[in-house]
Amino acid sequence: MARIRVLYEKKGLITFVNHMDLPVIFSRAARRAGISQEFTQGFSPHPRISLAPPLAIGVTGLAEPADFWLNELHDGLISDWNEKLPAGLKILKFKVIYDDRVLAKSVNAALYEIEGSGIILDANAEKFAADEAKKYNAFYSSSFENGKLKIAVGDLEHCGAATLVKALIAKDVIRGWSDVNMTRLAAGRWNTETSSVEPLV
């Protein structure tokens, strides 16, 4: 048995699939690819899978971590798995994990990019988003360039994509979700030395 941590991307129409449905999608693709998974014990066993803090519906994820418990590893594992995953969902790489720490507790930061959709954001977007994150003591860093806001935040349970978008709506920067394209560039650990979000793989 091996516990592996993967980085995957979620792009296109698959971003509108609920985060809670991803374990089923990954598990069914693994089964079709001939990958043997470890199951939980009890009355209703299911594949052992652990995901990072959820992405909001419609938000693209470019480096999302997830843990899977497999009964065996083999050459071509990832390519076989990817062939059975739906369009827009792709495993980028993986590593074997040897500790027992829960993935969700290891993720303490995320880097988001927000760009206008049909509108052009101005520098006020950075200030308002940063001010909102500071209310939760979750602000790490931000920048604004060429109409794109990048902001790194912690406390993802309370300060995720929805929180940032609601703050921009409240300040009349945007009218709603349809006015922005949002991407989570990375979810991982905040590195104070490099002032960046480090992926866990």
Proportion in β-strands: 25-35%
Rg over CA atoms: 18 Å
Mean pLDDT across residues: 94
* Poorly predicted sequence stretches spanning 5 or more consecutive residues: none
In DSSP terms (H or I, runs of 4 or more residues), the helix count works out at: 5
Secondary structure: helix percent: 10-25%
- Report the biggest beta sheet as strand number plus sense, adding barrel if it closes: 9 strands, mixed
Query: What kind of assembly state do the chains in view correspond to?
Result: single chain
Distance between the termini: 19 Å
Structural class, from secondary structure content?
A: alpha+beta
Give the SSE order as H and E letters: EHEEHEHEHEEHEE
Tally of strands: 9
Q: What general form does the structure show?
A: elongated
Concise overview:
By secondary structure, this protein is α+β, with helices and mostly antiparallel strands. It is 22% helix and 34% strand.
Explain what this protein looks like in three dimensions.
Helix content is 22%, strand content 34%. The protein has 201 residues and is an alpha+beta fold. Strands 1, 2, 3, 4, 5, 6, 7, 8 and 9 form a 9-stranded mixed β-sheet that branches. A hairpin with an 8-residue loop joins strand 2 and strand 3 (60-70).
